[in-house]
Amino acid sequence: MYVYQLNTHVASGDDRACWADLHLLNQSNEPVEAHIQLYQLDPATGPSKADVYYQHIIVLQPFASKGSCFNLLNTTITGDWIGVKITTTSEQPNSIFATLILKNKLATVKHHHQIPLHGTFPKYAYVANSGDDTVLIIDRDTHQMVGSPIQLPQHALPLDIATSKYSTFVYTSNSGTDNGSTIYTRGNQLWPLTLKLGVEPIAIETDEPYGLRIFAVNNNSPTSTVTVFDIVSGNTATILVGDNAVAISFNETHNRLYVANQDEGTISVIDATSYSVIATIPLLPGNPNNSAPVDLVCSPDGRYVYVAAKGLPGEIQVIETETNTLLNPIMLEHSPVSSTYIPRCLSISYDSAILFAAMSNYNGVVSLNVKSPASPRLFPDIIVPSGPPEHINVTPDGWEVYIVSNWGFESTVLIWNRRTNTFQPLPLPTGFQPVRVAFSHIIV
Asked: For residues 416 and 424, what is the distance between their CA atoms, to the nearest angstrom?
């Protein structure tokens, strides 16, 4: 994940630059997602998000194909300094060629700059430990712990942790203190922003791509709610959902939230603009509904929601998001006992192609090719030696699966390398009772 950055002075007087053009070319043979910021620069304080001229996310297609170029023309410049920062998902340096052109008021070109490669961003994994109120930080390149664990408030009891693609913060839901904590990823330090997340928040989610809102599930059976906390304004909203809500996932494409209601056997669909429930999807017909959904995940492309339901063993439920209707489930067909597997938690690759499923009664993680549900099993199961995983999450680049194993004092994080189909040589020790792991994506 590389960043290209240029800060430059704008000439003064009648010949000063008044317009800026930005040109990007993908030089690689893979699609590259880029976050672009064009901003007014104050040399004393550095880039200021309050003075951003332009900010957008684009996908550059492979070199020499349609969409491999991006041109931003005639952006007005008002200050004496201008800066541009381009953050990419690419794992290769110099995958893009970027230029900034400055023009005077007559649209005559005065300066032509190539935007240099600035460097890489650190990539971290954050593990929430509910037993000792800490967050452990792991360097995803070296697989080593970074510094000391971050100490949350006493009796915080963090049960979930989340971040957004272009956020500089990681958030925890602290069920013991009815709020959440904020971690600033640039310095890996606790930030003085307490999240108002309602009563006993047990699951947390952010909106994409900037993480400006936090959504928390408050499990107050028989009536559960979702609390929305607006980072910018500090305002909160409360949304009534189904009985014993336990999991939540945000769909960026449709700006919706999907909530799993375990005791009701339904999925609540929330419009994240009006903060209202627009649909309730039962996983089984009739009442009572014993499907008992326990986890769900939205595909990054926004097309589907995948649901793990312990009352429906041997299969993963699929919701098509355009119409919010149930499709045929994906069967966990692999061995004679797979029909008895009870799905517990899910994670999906960033390209929406591979779904990872962990079971509550099987110490293996199953890989499913959700692009081809008729023949879903892809790879041999990841066998976890310590028992059924507590939580799983696939890294943003898709090459590693972090598996949280919570078996008393033998708690560890196991890292599965999908290139070699092996675990990292040594499991990482954690704090007491690790429950969730989240990743920093691209830090701007």
From this structure: 6
How remote is the C-alpha of 40 from its chain's centroid?
29
Give the integer Cα–Cα distance in Å for 306 and 321: 10
CB 202 within 8 A of CB 215: no
Q: Rounded to whole angstroms, how far apart are CA atoms 244 and 168?
A: 32
**Amino acid letter for position 250:** F
Which amino acid belongs to residue 343?
Answer: P
Peptide bond into 31 cis (omega under 30): no
In angstroms, how far is CA 286 from the centroid of its own chain?
35
Give tens-digit pLDDT for 73-95: 998 888 788 889 898 877 788 88
Tokens of residue 97, six digits: 């060629």
For 230, the token pair is 């607006």
What tens digit of pLDDT does each residue of 175-202 get? 999 999 999 887 889 998 899 999 999 9
Cα separation, 216 vs 201, in Å, equals 6
Q: Which two tokens stand for residue 360?
A: 């509550």
How many angstroms separate the first and last alpha carbons of the chain? 11
Measure the CA–CA gap between 56 and 210, rounded to whole angstroms: 11
Give the global pTM: 0.82
Rounded Cα distance, 134 and 150, in Å: 5
> Would you say how long the chain is, in residues?
444
DSSP letters, 284-350, are SSSSS----EEEEEE-TTSSEEEEEETTSTTEEEEEETTTTEE-PPEE--SSTTGGG--EEEEEE-T
Residue 242 near residue 227 (C-beta atoms within 8 A): no
Separation between Cα atoms, residue 90 and residue 32, nearest integer Å: 6
Task: Give one DSSP letter per residue of 108-163, joined into a string.
Answer: -EEEEEE--EEEE---EEEEEETTTTEEEEEETTTTEE-SSPEEPPTT--EEEEEE
Closest of 123, 177, 125 to residue 152, by C-alpha: 177
